Structures are given as structure tokens and as C-alpha cells.
UniProtKB/TrEMBL annotation:
Record keyword Hydrolase present: no
A GO MF term: tRNA binding
UniProt cross-references to Gene3D superfamilies, sorted A to Z: RNA-binding S4 domain
Name under which the protein is recorded: RQC P-site tRNA stabilizing factor
Task performed by this protein: Key component of the ribosome quality control system (RQC), a ribosome-associated complex that mediates the extraction of incompletely synthesized nascent chains from stalled ribosomes and their subsequent degradation. RqcH recruits Ala-charged tRNA, and with RqcP directs the elongation of stalled nascent chains on 50S ribosomal subunits, leading to non-templated C-terminal alanine extensions (Ala tail). The Ala tail promotes nascent chain degradation. RqcP is associated with the translocation-like movement of the peptidyl-tRNA from the A-site into the P-site.
InterPro entries named among the record's database cross-references: RqcP (IPR025490), S4_RNA-bd (IPR002942), S4_RNA-bd_sf (IPR036986)
Amino acid sequence: MSMRLDKFLKVSRIIKRRSVAKEIADKGRIQINGKVAKSSSNVSVGDELVISFGNKTLTVKVTQLLETTKKNDAELMYDIVSEDYKTDYRQPFSD
């Protein structure tokens, strides 16, 4: 079983809107298993997605595909492998 990338990102709530997921994918900022993906690319269980947001790069592994989810179940669709920040604004500045 597989699912379109833009739908997976929306249903899993990694990206809230499908139109935004499509835009990010079509700019070449998402990779599936190391290859640049389009919004229409298929995602399967076991695939590793690398998503480049502005300051953050999120790497997730697909664990299951669901057509629809409730908010609590959305996180069951993937495991976070890593979350990297170019600049970590969460740390307090030190002099």
C-alpha cells in the first residue's frame, strides 16, 4: 500500500495543509529515501522522509499509512529519526 506524499504529510499532521505540503515538495525540499520527491510521489511504510523547513530539517520514518486520523493517532504514522536546527533559537543567549 502507498499514499501520495502531500496527502501523507497532511494526514500525519507533519504539515497542516495539503497545499503547503505540495508547495514544499515541488520546491525540492523533501526527500524520500535520499531522492528528491514531488508532491505526487508515493510513500510506503518503511520509507525515510527528510523535510527541509526554513530553519529546521526533520527526518521521519513512515510506520503506517492511514486514510484519515484523529489528532492523537496522527503521530502513530511516523517515528522522528532526527530534528536538526541551523540556528537553535531555543537556547538562551550567553554573553
